[in-house]
Amino acid sequence: MEKRALLYEGKAKKLYETDVENTLWVEYKDDATAFNGEKKEVLVGKGKLNNEISSLLFQKLHEEGINNHFVDRLSETEQAVKKTTIVPLEVVVRNIVAGSLHRRTGIEEGTEVDRPVVEFYYKDDELGDPLINDDHIRLLQAASPVQVKDMKQVAEHVNETLKKHFSDHGLLLVDFKIEFGTTEDGKLLLSDEISPDTCRLWDKETRQKFDKDLFRYGIGSLQEGYTEILQRLGGAAHG
């Protein structure tokens, strides 16, 4: 497979065309951002870690019957994915109160919820990716009611699968964000990435944080946290 023209560059990844039909080439960057890009830094090795972790997790989901866009890991920082048109929504699933859920509700951080909280955010940098409900989604024509229902079902299945998978490796899945795309024939497909950039992950016993909050709030080394996650999942650590 041959890498061709750059299609898009986001905060954490670059996306390229390839010579294979309906297949794209993703390059993970070392850039770290927080607070909608207000905090930025280059953290050497971050791209390698996220690429390997995301590859492992997409493969795990595929084994559990959850279709996704992942095709193959091409190098330390690159992977091949199926081409999709991204739905302009972020789906967030929360198992433990943290982050914006704590700030919005006043519920103490670390409180376990009795059932997962599923939220939708509208992907718009100028608006700050606002939290929206089903009526807003319909008003914005961001997705059809059937797509919203399907995204919720897949998100809940992903949550059940990854909660157990992380727990088996001594980690708590606090919350996570996923995105979906539509294929050329209109099918909804889990896309983007699943990594410590998009998941809050704590040690099951001590509740030590190993995710992007380390960078977001300046409370530790992001590379060390991500390396710990990769090692627990059985991947190779990068220096």
Pick out its properties.
Phosphoribosylaminoimidazole-succinocarboxamide synthase, 2 domains, 239 residues, single chain, alpha+beta, D-amino Acid Aminotransferase, Chain A, domain 1, Phosphorylase Kinase, domain 1
**Overall domain count:** 2
From the coordinates shown, what is the CATH architecture of the largest domain?
Answer: 2-Layer Sandwich
Query: What percentage of residues falls in helices of 4 or more residues?
Result: 25-40%
Query: Within the CATH hierarchy, at the fold level, what is the topology of the largest domain?
Result: D-amino Acid Aminotransferase, Chain A, domain 1
Q: Could you describe the largest sheet, including whether it forms a barrel?
A: 6 strands, antiparallel
CATH class of the largest domain: Alpha Beta
Q: Give start-end ranges of low-pLDDT stretches.
A: none
Q: CATH superfamily assignment of the largest domain?
A: ATP-grasp fold, B domain
Shape, per Cα inertia axes: globular
> Would you count the extended β strands for me?
13
Residue fraction in strands: 25-35%
**What order do the SSEs take from the amino end to the carboxyl end, as H and E?**
EEEEEHEEEHEEHHEEEHH
Give the number of helices.
6
Rg calc: 17 Å
Structural class computed from helices and strand pairing? alpha+beta
C-alpha termini separation: 28 Å
Calculate the mean pLDDT score and round it. 97
